[in-house]
What does this fold into?
Amino acid sequence: MANTVSSIKRVRIAERRTATNRARKSRLRHQIRTMRRLLEQKDASAAAKAAPATYSLVDRAAKWGIIKKNTAARYKSRLTLRLRKISTPAAA
It folds into this structure.
């Protein structure tokens, strides 16, 4: 158990930051899940509209330290590839 005033304060700060990070990570996961569902349904127009918001949230999550930079890049890359695949008609 924390004994000093400063350590008690650090515990309070850690609890607040944990709650914030948990909410941010949850919001990120929901946004990515929404984007993936649109891609699975092959709804190109809705997915194209959701893409900027998703990419923005992924970038902000990387900036906040919720996910790593390379993880953010991987998410965006894979979503973009899937979006391009359903946006353009398949060339035979």
User: Anything to note?
Assistant: The two ends are 67 Å apart (CA to CA). Helices lie at 5-40, 44-64, 69-87. The chain has one domain: 5-86. Residues 5-86 form a domain with the Methane Monooxygenase Hydroxylase; Chain G, domain 1 fold (CATH 1.20.58.110).
